[in-house]
């Protein structure tokens, strides 16, 4: 595997994954690309919310190949390991991987130094594992060890770029994604200032502090654990006007910081807010509702019904042409995995590849039976049909939610009015905070 140039498997996968990513998310935006040093050794330090999707979205923002460290578990099969190495994935070992895990990691650290010595780029998730929560967890020192070794073995300065990955939803498709690159940290400069230090912690601590501070600036961090659900409700479930991802992130970031201060300084009021949020969430879960429905006393269902009737033929066409590749990840993999954190990764990567593969086969079959490039227009219709069928599905779910809400307001008018008042108070609170 070459270190500097593109390998064929990496290049092919890069193109396929880029298109899959664009189709999987509704909006993808990157900011801070100018913060990435050019023609320098770079380590991207990112928060880790979405397993395999996280390195993909960072790698596809780079025009140069990027290497990334991942858990050694997936390298156990020799054939799979060979494929993963060709895709620039490197295993990182833990104590449970065997008594020789330290020796194996030394070899990987040496590999990282070799990559960085040629001005390569590496992705590291210093939290050590992934978690869907918007919360920065304690960072591991492995990134500092890799950086200091590369510094000792490389003439160029080693740069670390904090990367904030901000998903509006980490499990379902059609979410928003903002990839935010923070100000680059010159790790070599920090190490040079600590030449007289003998203790490892004295060398690593300043760097780890800068990485942590850099990450907090580029991501949402719901740091008061007791009020995590309140953060999530006020910043993610209160209805707002659609704005650009940059403005959305700035607003969320500002309110996030103010909420943290508020929860710390106002315990009694915070508990009252938490009670109202829990009550709305409880009813929403029981009645299959969404909080935004409490914006109105009653929702009109005539236009949604008309839209469902008119759109059904087009949705059915899209569903039929994508049913098999859409159902394979669910039936063969997701139904057998207990950890729901892998849902989006499997759906995006495997589902996206299968969808493209099946459409190509179907289009090839059409090309054998027709003339005049009809196969091309059939392929395009599969893509558009898939998009329409998914949007139709979301539209149907919203219709069901509105119908359930109308039934709820009719059967329990006093409770619904009370919760509507709660929702209005919470919305006013977060807007005025």
Brief characterization of the structure:
The chain is α/β, with parallel strands linked by helices and 433 residues long. Helix content is 59%, strand content 9%.
How many discrete structural domains?
A: 2
Number of strands: 8
Tell me roughly what share of residues is in helical segments.
55-70%
Query: Compute the gyration radius: what is it?
Result: 25 Å
Low-confidence runs (pLDDT<50, min 5 residues)? none
The best one-word shape is: flat
CATH level-4 homologous superfamily of the largest domain: Glycerol-3-phosphate (1)-acyltransferase
Q: Give the topology string: H per helix, E per strand.
A: HEEHEHEHEHEEEHHHHHHHHH
Secondary-structure class: alpha/beta
In whole angstroms, the N-to-C terminal distance is 53 Å
Beta-strand content estimate: 5-15%
CATH architecture of the largest domain: 3-Layer(aba) Sandwich
CATH fold assignment of the largest domain: Glycerol-3-phosphate (1)-acyltransferase
What summary fits the major beta sheet?
A: 8 strands, mixed
CATH class of the largest domain: Alpha Beta
